[in-house]
UniProtKB/TrEMBL annotation:
Record NCBIfam families: PRK11478.1
InterPro entries in the record: Fosfomycin_Res_Enzymes, Glyas_Bleomycin-R_OHBP_Dase, Glyas_Fos-R_dOase_dom, VOC_core, YwkD-like_dom
Record-linked CDD domains: VOC_Bs_YwkD_like
Name under which the protein is recorded: VOC family protein
Pfam families in alphabetical order: Glyoxalase
Top-level division of the source organism's lineage: Bacteria
Amino acid sequence: MKIHHIAIICSDYVASKRFYTEIIGLNIIREAYREERKSYKLDLAIGDHYVIELFSFPDPPQRPSRPEACGLRHLAFSVENVTIKRNELISKGLICEEIRIDEFTGKEFFFTQDPDQLPLEFYEI
């Protein structure tokens, strides 16, 4: 029917929580600390649409993302204007790639990454 949510395990919960809420601008639905797992679980939304579960676990293993490895390649967010979004993210200290054009759709997009180097794409709708 549709994707319900995406789960992300981070290495630094405080940094990733700040990144996804203050930099990217996702809204917190709920936050819980699970003592038995020594793990935070943060449910995040775009507007009121639940989209990401952010988890912390003690000492999670690294997952390679470059060169491109098997598995999840990137997470893409729709935006109305990639130039405005790119400038906003740069003003908040992110390093963003140059804007490119999708050869199949003619739409503009660019990439940046989260604190654990998960590639994030911003794609103009």
